[in-house]
Amino acid sequence: MKVKKTAILAYVFAIIFVIALSFMYYLNKPIYTPKVLYIPAGSINKIITQLQSKNYDVCKIDSFLLRMIGSPQSGWINLQTRVNTKADFLYKLTRSKAALQNVTLIPGETTYIFLNQLASNLHLNRQKLQNEFNKHAPIKEGVFIPDTYRLPLGITEKELIKVLLNSSHKKMKELSLKFFGNYNQKKWFRYVAIASIIQKESASAKEMPLVSSVIYNRINKGMKLQMDGTLNYGKYSHQKVTPYRIKNDTTTYNTYRHAGLPTAPVCNVSIDAIRAAVFPKKTKYLYFMKSKNGTHDFTCNYSTHLRNIKRATK
After folding, report:
1. Are 101 and 124 in contact (CB under 8 A)?
2. pLDDT in tens, 12-23
């Protein structure tokens, strides 16, 4: 009987030993992730499911282990390295936080300038940002919603562009559903193109529906837009438009040479500008000129427009 008891105990200890070894092996398995990771708010099961959807090597066992270790942090976390043991990974989920940097995209700013700003503030490679943007953006300009973004130091160029595009696309889709009841990408970005000219030309949000009316009125009459703001695209965002640029710029952004809208928006635009593009003021205005007080004088007649120019430049 004693021998049988000893054998049973030895068998139990062997099973426990194998389980312990398996457990230790599991905790020391490597898991590969970006150094900076976004964790959504929610239950442990939801977090594990979200990580699985990203093809990270986690499972229900990790849900059980996390319940023993503690609740995961939500938001951006910095894992320090791209390869962690499973034990380190789960521990960092509950303890780590990423340092965040505010980056503001102002209405009317071009993507070229914004990518420069992102590269500088977040210590990223400018060309990699451009390459990722070119790869994933639906059009070359106007795809970001101006806002102050809280972004983690350590994020990769690929993940950053993905985050910004997804966030902006979500907001644009919500706006389109609000304005039209549907979202048609081609139709939407035509309005963004109009909004971008409004953004560049308006002195205030109050003026935007009036500037919008001039754009529509000129297009409907077959007139060229002839607006300086369309030449403030890309790297020329803050450069004064000169007669030389007007004469020599051959892109569709040059609305002195080309009729209709540019083939892409000029810049990233505010919600006010989009609203003005969708809902222009009903006027007969065809011209506007910035006055000495910074606002614009609008007129239907070219002769009056010339007088406004003379008064503003006197």
Report:
1. no
2. 666 776 677 777
